[in-house]
Amino acid sequence: MRVLAVVPARGGSAGVPLKNLAPVGGIPLVARAVRACLRAELIDRVVVSTDHAGIAEVAREAGAEVVERPAELSGATASSESAVLHALDAMDEEPEVVLLVQCTSAFINPADLSAAVRTVLDGEADSVVSGLPTHEFLWTAAGAGINHDPAFRPRRQDREAQFRENGAFYVMRTAGLRESGHRFFGKVAVQPVPAQHAIEVDDPEDLELVRALAPFIDEPEPIDVDAVITDFDGVHTDDRAYVDSDGREMVLVSRSDGMGIALLRRSGVKLLVMSTEHNPVVAARARKLGVPVLQGLAEKRTVLRDWLTIEGLDPARVAYVGNDVNDLGPMAEVGWPIAVPDAHPRVRAAARVVLSKPGGAGAVRELCDRVIAARPEPPVAEVKTRPRLGPVEIGDVRVGDGEPVYMIGEIGINHNGDLDIARRLIDVAADAGCQAVKFQKRTPEICVPLEQRDQIRQTPWGEMTYLEYKKRTEFGRDEYRQIAKYADERGLHWFASPWDVPSVEFLEEMDVLVHKVASASVADHELLRALAATGKPIILSTGMSTLSEIDAAVEILGTDKLIMMHSTSTYPLPPEEANLRTITTLKERYGVPVGYSGHERGLQISLAAVTLGAVCVERHITLDRTMWGSDHAASLEPAGLEHLVRDVRIIEQALGDGVKRVFPGEEAPKARLRRVTV
After folding, report:
1. How far apart are CA 678 and CA 674, in angstroms?
2. Pairing mode, strands 242-243 and 227-231
3. Whole-number pLDDT of residue 499
4. Residue 633: its pLDDT value, please?
5. Which end of the chain has fewer CB atoms at under 10 Å, N or C?
6. Contacts of 511 (CB under 8 A, 6+ apart)
7. How many CA atoms lie within 13 A of 59 on its CB side?
8. pLDDT tens-digit map of 271-280
């Protein structure tokens, strides 16, 4: 870590209560500061220092680490420097450069942050402050000029700009901050920021100002959601109604909205129209669009909550579009509150996005286009054709098309740190007819995130921190030597999924026959390079991975000794997420043997995978699904594993070789029943 950004965000605020959680453009101020830091290419880590649980939660969701600030550093008189120094002391390594980034600045340009950091890294300054260029004349209350002679007023173009410190960010060489205890030391430079980025939120009026400016300053972004809910009047219409002499009501809508809705439905986004009125016009338009509608709603917010629950939607990935104050409730429930430009001021202030086109004049079409922009069609790219590779040899076993299915009992962490349980699970795998057992190997100090290390867990061995628990259940050299010996006695291969580079080195010392890449490690290129360097066969699980991520992994691992496993990392796996036809997709794309790693309850999906060509099957195993631990519930008990292996062998026989022939058992029925005519 070379550059650390610290965002002080205490819960107390004199001017605006809980100011750091106040939304601007639909995003809390603390999250806006975190996002700006994460987008700055020269910042390595982002930490929020806070004494407030709600701020900590929002900061983590935005992607920051959190340092809990003690009470003595959280009062109104505590300096920002004290928060930065406390955060530095909490880090596992000392950065060369540290930033102090203020939540009170709603509009921070990541490029400005990187430019200021570069100034310090290049040795041009020891401390950099953000400032607004100004040519203003300053006066004292007594009428005396401060930065000018009232008798001589040069033109603006003849005067050098001065800079007004705006408090958005400060960049400091860490050693200098520690030595001076203050943010200004050594050679100080100014990073210019534009006027629209220099507004600080100190009181309610400032907050209203930045909320009004957000739609114009924030860069438009694709709206990445799984569902879109809209009000009707003022969103699909211009909020006016036309009434004929018979009292029949008509409204004005935009034809372009219909095409937008059709494209959105085709992309798989769920849609809903909500209206407080019960109006046949609303029902007719919804039917025309093919969108469900809920009308006559006294309380939209409650109905929306129920609908999201029924549809199984994450509120953070839902958009609600409104225009009036009765839309404020449902807007507060979703991650993407959206307003039309002529909406009520309170609605615009609460919106994360303000559309540019009014209701009835293309607002819905604009919304649909931005949602679709976040869901691009998979590029029609030329797929690299790879030659079909033969079976991969793991010890004395060949794994590939036409070979017996390689059955792996995944013990993982189901041994709960007990060597006797591990031996009993090896027995279960051997007795069922498996060829291998697999474990997981971690270095807890590397794999356990900092923010989780001290979390307290209730375990069968008593209350302990999460880091202590992970160490308690991790086997070392002595245990794995005994595991290797016992697996060999039972005629099984054994190997493990290493989660970090030291674990690869550990397993190499154990002389395993093959290495397994867990789905969680597909994008860990450092780990993949270490595994590729062993020259051993690699089994690559592909759960929670895109094809581009798998492409990158295969580029590192190569295909000569690669076996790929189709997997979906849902525990337990519902049938609708199994997507077994991906087995064929992976075979055709990469030209390597493909197996299946399952986390479902029952046997049907694993057996179906074999019929689709899976060359190996891996299933978690346990002595009892009710045992303590995270993976037991989605594991097979001894009888289940025995039945799985038995049925896989039956399916192997039943699949045959694909050559159409008359089998011996058909000869007698053929002689008796076949009628031949000319």
Report:
1. 13
2. unpaired
3. 94
4. 78
5. C
6. none
7. 30
8. 999 988 888 8
